[in-house]
Amino acid sequence: MSELARRIGRDATTATRFVNRGQQEGLFVRTPGVRDRRRRLVGLTDAGREARAQLAALRERRAADVLEHLLAETGLHEGQVEWFLTSMLASMQPPGDDEAPAISDAPRD
Predict the structure, then answer these.
(1) Is 5 within 8 Å of 12 (Cβ atoms)?
(2) Full 3-state SS string of 31-91
(3) Residue (of 20, 68, 22) closest to 45 by Cα position
(4) Which residues contact 43 (CB under 8 A, 6 or more apart)?
(5) Tens of pLDDT along 86-95?
(6) Torsion sign across C-alpha atoms 34, 36, 38, 39
(7) pLDDT tens digits for 52-66?
(8) Is the pTM of this model over 0.85?
(9) How many angstroms separate the Cα of 39 from the Cα of each of 8, 22, 25, 105?
(10) Per DSSP, what are the bridge partners of residue 43?
(11) What are the residues facing 32 on neighbouring strands?
(12) How would you classify residue 38: left for phi > 0, otherwise alpha for psi between -120 and 50, otherwise beta?
């Protein structure tokens, strides 16, 4: 659970509670580790994969709505808005986070 907790930015107790609840709801399954059977791997069930797909579709729709609004309200073009949002996200990542998106050069008009 410690690796999962690190990835989601929560403590191990919170991650364990989350997985326990998801397992009870049929979204997650735990299996023993391949090399170290004391470790538990957490995977998605078919219902978990379906829930993930629904969530991803919802996120896409909401992101498109936000982008449309920003483009209309700011007069910026899509590349400028994408650069700005990516830069903001990167600045919010903790130092040393290898999974943080890199800040790229600002787009030119």
Answers:
(1) yes
(2) EECCCCCCCEEEEECHHHHHHHHHHHHHHHHHHHHHHHHHHHHHCCCHHHHHHHHHHHHHH
(3) 22
(4) 28, 29, 30, 31
(5) 888 888 876 6
(6) negative
(7) 999 999 999 998 998
(8) no
(9) 18, 18, 22, 42
(10) 29
(11) 40
(12) alpha
Per residue in 85-104, is it b (16+ CB within 10 Å) or e — as a string? eeeeeeeeeeeeeeeeeeee
Burial class of residue 54 (count of CB atoms within 10 Å of its CB; 0-12, 13-18, 19+): exposed
Beta carbons within 8 Å of 44's beta carbon, 6+ residues apart: 27, 28, 29, 52
Length, in residues, of the chain = 109
Structure tokens at 30: 């735990």
Query: Residue 81 is encoded by which pair of tokens?
Result: 């808005």
